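Worked example 2:
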Amino acid sequence: MTRFILLPFTFFMLLSFASYASEETYQFETDAQSSMFFELTKELRCPMCQNQNIADSDAMIAADLRRKVYQLVNEGQSREQIIDYMKQRYGDFVYYQPPVNATTVWLWLLPVIFVLLGIVLVVRSRQQKPVTQDKAKLEAAEKLLEEDK
């Protein structure tokens, strides 16, 4: 009887150890390495998730990227070297600040073009009020005023 009572407790204890095994801990020699690691994991985008960095993502590839960043930081590579490595392997998408080149120039120019186009359309619509309609309305108002007299 006591076996059946202890069996669920044993099962829950094993589950609690499994949760500790899934937690990632990273040990660094210096605080500078630690801060660079956490900054990079916030700046690198998960290739699988949409608009989520690898620090916050639960995807397996994000965990792999965190481990790779940890390895490269411990090897003493610079921030730019790590970013270049990730961009070379996963493309410009992995970095939140895409470079300006022939393929990404539209990302930078289209918002400016849309704003300028909107300003031009608003200014043009205000300038092109039909004058004939305004004159016709004015004449109709004057006629009403004359009739009331």
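The radius of gyration is 32 Å. The mean pLDDT is 82.
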